[in-house]
């Protein structure tokens, strides 16, 4: 069943135990390269209205114009802000996200986790809603899994500004709840569903179809036979951003014969 058939009502299953916290997180950054850093961070605990953190930071590298055009954070806006590691909330956030009693949720989590890693933070357990959405869409009927696309596809009623870290966190929480409902239906309980979501998020995705480029819409196994050089070129491009493109690197290596399915 496609995830867009899930009802709008909130799941009636029990919440996580008091010991377990679900934390939603989103970053806005200077760019998407290996040297880029975060310039805004929003962190929210499940079912609590107030943010844990929603702040701008002065990154150690300049914000690219391309990034400004997306999130509208300028150098003037971060002038005078502390570096993230120098902010008073940093030690508490590091302790929170690295706790064994916390699951950190992000969309396309590999990107946000890479940004956090550059700041010395490695969350203990994570759920990637991008990977969960893909895993639930077993027939690949959606094809696009961007956060804002899923927001409108699934009719998530959220008052939030796109490409603002806090706005994206609000959408992220709504998407997580919708996906969790579906996984609970499959696994039988919220506890089992969360464990399954962590498991799915921890392993690389194996894509089957290209959704971009000259072979858009074609199955990757077919492209490997008719245009292997294209996949080799694409792999080289993806390897330039190993953290953010881990799923594509694994997929391309697999179809080129250099990896095995998990």
List keywords for this structure.
single chain; 262 residues; alpha/beta; Nucleotidyltransferase, domain 5; 41% helix
Which secondary structure elements does this structure contain, and how are they paired or packed?
Blueprint: E1 21-29, E2 38-45, E3 53-56, H1 65-71, H2 75-78, H3 90-97, E4 102-106, H4 109-117, E5 125-128, H5 129-136, H6 147-153, H7 165-187, H8 190-202, H9 220-226, H10 228-238, H11 246-255
Parallel strand pairs: 1-4, 4-5
Antiparallel strand pairs: 1-2, 2-3
Helix pairs in contact: 5-7, 6-7, 7-8, 9-10, 10-11
Q: What do these coordinates show?
A:
- There is one protein chain.
- This protein has about 260 residues and is of the alpha/beta class.
- It folds into two domains: about 190 residues, Nucleotidyltransferase, domain 5; about 55 residues, no CATH class.
- About 40% of the residues lie in helices and about 10% in strands.
- The protein contains eleven helices and five strands.
- The protein has a five-stranded mixed sheet with strand order 3-2-1-4-5.
- Helix 9 packs across helix 10 and helix 10 packs antiparallel against helix 11.
- The longest helix is centred in the last third of the chain and has 23 residues.
- The radius of gyration is 19 Å and the shape is globular.
- It starts with 20 loop residues before the first strand and ends in a 7-residue tail after the last helix.
């Amino acid at each position: 069943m496609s995830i867009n058939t899930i009802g709008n009502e909130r799941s009636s299953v029990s919440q996580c135990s008091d010991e377990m916290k679900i934390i939603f997180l989103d970053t806005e950054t200077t760019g998407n390269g290996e040297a880029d850093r975060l310039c805004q961070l929003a962190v929210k605990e499940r079912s609590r209205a107030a943010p844990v953190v929603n702040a701008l930071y002065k990154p150690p590298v300049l914000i690219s114009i391309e990034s400004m055009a997306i999130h509208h954070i300028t150098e003037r806006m971060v002038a005078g802000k502390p570096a993230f590691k120098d902010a008073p909330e940093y030690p508490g956030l590091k302790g929170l996200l690295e706790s064994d009693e916390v699951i950190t949720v992000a969309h396309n989590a590999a990107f946000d986790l890479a940004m956090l890693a550059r700041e010395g933070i490695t969350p203990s357990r994570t759920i990637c809603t991008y990977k969960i959405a893909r895993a639930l869409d077993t027939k690949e009927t959606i094809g696009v899994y961007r956060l804002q696309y899923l927001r409108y596809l699934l009719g998530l009623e959220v008052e939030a500004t796109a490409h603002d870290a806090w706005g994206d966190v609000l959408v992220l929480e709504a998407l997580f709840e919708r996906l969790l409902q579906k996984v609970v239906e499959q696994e039988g309980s919220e506890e089992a569903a969360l464990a399954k979501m962590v498991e799915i998020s921890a392993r690389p995705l194996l894509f089957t179809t290209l959704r971009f480029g000259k072979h858009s819409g074609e199955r990757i196994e077919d492209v490997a036979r008719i245009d292997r050089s294209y996949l080799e070129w694409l792999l080289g491009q993806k390897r330039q951003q190993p953290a953010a493109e881990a799923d594509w690197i694994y997929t391309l290596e697999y179809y080129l014969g250099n990896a095995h399915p998990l």
